[in-house]
Amino acid sequence: xxxxxxxxxxxxxxxxxxxxxxxxxxxxxxxxxxxxxxxxxxxxxxxxxxxxxxxxxxxxxxxxxxxxxxxxxxxxxxxxxxxxxxxxxxxxxxxxxxxxxxxxxxxxxxxxxxxxxxxxxxxxxxxxxxxxxxxxxxxxxxxxxxxxxxxxxxxxxxxxxxxxxxxxxxxxxxxxxxxxxxxxxxxxxxxxxxxxxxxxxxxxxxxxxxxxxxxxxxxxxxxxxxxxxxxxxxxxxxxxxxxxxxxxxxxxxxxxxxxxxxxxxxxxxxxxxxxxxxxxxxxxxxxxxxxxxxxxxxxxxxxxxxxxxxxxxxxxxxxxxxxxxxxxxxxxxxxxxxxxxxxxxxxxxxxxxxxxxxxxxxxxxxxxxxxxxxxxxxxxxxxxxxxxxxxxxxxxxxxxxxxxxxxxxxxxxxxxxxxxxxxxxxxxxxxxxxxxxxxxxxxxxxxxxxxxxxxxxxxxxxxxxxxxxxxxxxxxxxxxxxxxxxxxxxxxxxxxxxxxxxxxxxxxxxxxxxxxxxxxxxxxxxxxxxxxxxxxxxxxxxxxxxxxxxxxxxxxxxxxxxxxxxxxxxxxxxxxxxxxxxxxxxxxxxxxxxxxxxxxxxxxxxxxxxxxxxxxxxxxxxxxxxxxxxxxxxxxxxxxxxxxxxxxxxxxxxxxxxxxxxxxxxxxxxxxxxxxxxxxxxx
Length: 683
Prior knowledge:
Elements: H1 2-25, E1 36-45, E2 52-54, H2 60-77, E3 94-100, E4 112-116, E5 121-127, H3 128-140, E6 143-144, E7 149-158, E8 164-170, H4 178-190, E9 195-199, E10 201-202, E11 205-206, H5 215-219, H6 228-240, E12 244-248, H7 256-261, H8 291-305, E13 312-314, H9 323-326, H10 329-337, H11 343-360, E14 364-368, E15 381-384, H12 396-404, E16 407-410, H13 422-426, H14 438-443, E17 444-451, H15 461-465, H16 468-477, H17 485-499, H18 509-518, H19 524-530, E18 533-535, H20 557-560, H21 566-579, H22 585-603, H23 615-634, H24 639-652, E19 659-661, H25 664-679
């Protein structure tokens, strides 16, 4: 009986806690949502007298974070601060206390406590990393009324759910300059992400300066690579933000660029190795039977590991189909001699030798989940990217890896280059409802969003990463029970806007692209179209990897469109509510009126080959909207009008200029509603 009573009490407390957290999340736009937050009656006014101090001046991370906090706070509020730097030997109105300086690894304690009272704010943490995480939360709490900015009275106790919360940026297929990397590191830090996975080599380019093998940058980079000093600078910049940097040198496949520079390492004699200009999976592969291959990789790894202090080193290891291995008789003889039955066995042989090289350099080998074979030691780290879509069981390779004894990181479900909705990514939980032992759970380090760059350039990459990755960061940091999608979207709107403070271009560059398309004409009609169109999803754009080359234009209409098109989301929600009996008719009429008139504005543009393909799209959207508008306003629709609208929707359902109209389902719902309610009643 006592157990039953205790269970009832606990359940009641949990229900009350959940309700409180839910009500507060509608009030505060925090992301990721903290572990625990409680309100008090305090109100800390933001004025020119604000000062900041720390209990020690030994942490450059905290000092840099404090200065950045003051700059962003001043810019956000317009308050002229009297003190622009942390105080020395004096306690400020914002005081940061921490116990130790972190070495930055998977054991780093990132927890913190934040307490806001009327006249003082205190951030306390065990490490300087926890302290800077707390500062990011404090900045997100900035609120205002008509006369003042302030921090609301709250007490927050926070700690992450997973130790690995990463973003992978592919700088090989399209090179991303240092300034692009740094602004994305700033954005990562603002939402408490802590691992930057830098994909530096692939078929399309080798992006690291090598002084040991200089032909790598001379012949395999098109002159686009990071100098060693630039790499050190980025690693140091990330370190100050509390972000670890994991390099990836992808071998033995995806090796076209390496073999362009050093063809003697290849598996096919006499093959003309060149840098790839298309996307996809290609045949050039390192030869795992040659001693010179391992000599090359050992020397290269020795050079590169000096640039990256983190323990983890990613070797790729994915998508090797072994065609050139199959065509090489010497390799087949080697397999027979060493009793290697399959190419998977041969690649495991290769991976084990690489792991020994990396272990000798003090590094831990990490690779995509293809490296998980029966003979691969469990000291390797499995990066899980395949799941149900790739024919694997529930939990994909992540759960399998954890159960087999591997440390593992999840990216399946977080491939942001697939242009899927934020809702899709947000509902992917790294563990889900699968039951694990404590040991198995401890092996799941966390997850990474992956930004493959076949279709992105420095101009567009921010809009493909953000703001969705902020929501993914919440999935890695916050409790599994933080899962209200509409509330997340509400908070994400504020977070997305604030990310612009860091120099991100995910919002503003749409107008830049559209102005370029029109030669600086009025882009209002194109913005209206972009607000209901989204880029094609899951690699439908660039089918087979041969529609675009690495030097093709990526400043087209599809590049100006983004996932979760703003007006489409609002219209789709309004229509769903309307057909279910809620009164959203005014909102629907407003959108239909806007779209019905939009083609008139579009028609005024002086056409060119970039915008002419959009003419039919614009015309059909306007005509369909006008017909639906009249039906809803008059509460009457004819049989002919129904047929005409359905025909227009069918046409609109076909992709145009590499985009899809994101309101198709809503239009179908609306015409069905009109047919059911307005046709029968009037005929």
